[in-house]
Amino acid sequence: MSDDRHPAFMPLILVGGLIFGFGLAYSHMARPEVVLDFLQFEDFGLVFVMFGGAAVTGVAFVLGPRLLGRAPLTGDTFERRLKSFDRNVLVGGAIFGVGWGLSGICPGAAYASLGIGNVTILWALAGMFLGAYLQGYWRTRSETSDTAATGAD
Amino acid sequence: MVIEALPLQATAELFPNGISRYAVGGLLVGLGTVVIYLGTGISAGASTFLESTLSYVSDRSRFQQYVSSRDWRVVFTLGIILGAAVYAVVYQGGAWTTDVQPWRLLLGGVFVGIGTRVGKGCTSGHGVCGVGSASKTSIAGVLTFLAVAIITAQLVSALGVSP
């Protein structure tokens, strides 16, 4: 779908990203200190960020397919984001939890943090790319013997 | 300040900064996701950008599977950065930088990079899109990383590491 993409595809992705990033900055998710305050039970506000976001997507995920049928810019059918459950979800979740609890930073919030002028966050971004590379390097090697394909969003 | 905190003692203790900034921000995060979803059918997460971008510089098959989506993921991420920059200019009045120590950011980042990829998603993919889809996998992922993150942050704090 790369060549016959709708001309509005990229602009729409950009607008969606703009709103997403503005929301992350507005919610102060882009400040590691605020996330760490939440994890240390000093400010429970972040509950509203995740569940507020999930509530909005939840409504759209239900209504979108009924009102639109197919996505106007790609012609794709609407599907729920359902990933297969296996041990990796728990193992990876736990590893991610260690990183989130140590640094107060997750991927989307780290990009937004750069946008609010937090150049120090480049340490976290460098770490994330390093971690993703190490994981991909290891996964590629292990897949040569084990051909199980893994989907990702 | 549409949704200002109720004047209850308990509310003030749980939410020292009120709830409006979090609620409004969260609704906007959801709205950004919805704009992309309704237009394209894609439920976008932020962590795949790490792998998809690595496909520009690495030939490994693990990264090459994201070649078809890597361009729009770059645009999505640039949008996130720009949107946050708009907030910084309009509301923040300039740049803000963290006091959290670089070693925590770097080491935490490595764990985040590995964990989101092994665990198939992050706070936006699992937390916003997945929970919004009522996906049991995502709910299990969120509960796992939330619990471990709380334990980790409390331990680090108890060891006297600050900020």
UniProtKB/TrEMBL annotation, chain A:
The keyword Transmembrane helix applies. The chain crosses the membrane at residues 7-26, 46-68, 89-110, 116-134. InterPro entries: DUF6691. It holds the Pfam family DUF6691. The keyword Zinc does not apply. Keywords: Membrane, Transmembrane, Transmembrane helix. This is YeeE/YedE family protein. It comes from Haloarcula hispanica. The lineage of its organism: Archaea, Methanobacteriati, Methanobacteriota, Stenosarchaea group, Halobacteria.
TrEMBL record, chain B:
Its main location: membrane. It is found in: Cell inner membrane. It holds the Pfam family Sulf_transp. The chain crosses the membrane at residues 22-50, 71-90, 139-161. This is YeeE/YedE family protein. It is a multi-pass membrane protein. PANTHER family: INNER MEMBRANE PROTEIN YEDE, SULPHUR TRANSPORT DOMAIN-CONTAINING PROTEIN. Keywords: Cell inner membrane, Cell membrane, Membrane, Transmembrane, Transmembrane helix, Transport. It comes from Haloarcula hispanica. GO terms for cellular component: plasma membrane. It comes from the Archaea.
